[in-house]
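Board notes (copied after class):
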Amino acid sequence: MSLRTLAAAAILSCLSLPAFAGSSTITIAGGCFWCVESDFERVRGVSEAVSGYTGGSVSNPSYKQVTGGGTGHYEAVQITYDPDTLPLPALFDMFFRSIDPTDAGGQFCDRGDSYRSAIFVSNAAEQKAAEAAKAKAEAALGKTIVTPILKAAPFYVAEDYHQDYYKSSDRVLTRFGLVTKANAYKRYRDACGRDQRVKALWGDAAPFAS
């Protein structure tokens, strides 16, 4: 069994319904926050994943401001997890393998500053874990990883309509007609090529790509 397959098995063992006792939080940015939220809410040990904005210069920014550019914010997700069930190094390993960490201009079909990837850390332990995971991912890929590790900044929760978008039964008007948000999300994710690119990069080590 290859090292990549063994790593994938270890990561996939964390996937199931949440189970937790204590809690910590970490903020990550991996392109579209709907996708990151959807991925990590499946992970055993994660109690909540909240979409929002961080890393910019404007207080309480709107989605329109952030995606319009100029605020410096990332679309990000704040993850609440139980470190006894889901150790931080494992969480970071999953994160790197759920994105294209070689892309500095955005993620997948989403381009621009707000869609860049990043890890935001609050202390030396988080910094050390993030740096180790980044080095491990770079060695596994054999390519330079450009995802930065940044000092945590204020996190602003995104508008209500963004939360749990991927599983909402609310209806929205799209070019496909009036569909549920869950349906619109699936169509978007497929069209954006997220899973295809992650699988091309990480193969069997990609924990979420279907």
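Comment from the instructor: DSSP finds seven helices and ten strands in the chain. Confidence is low (pLDDT under 50) at residues 5-10, 16-20.
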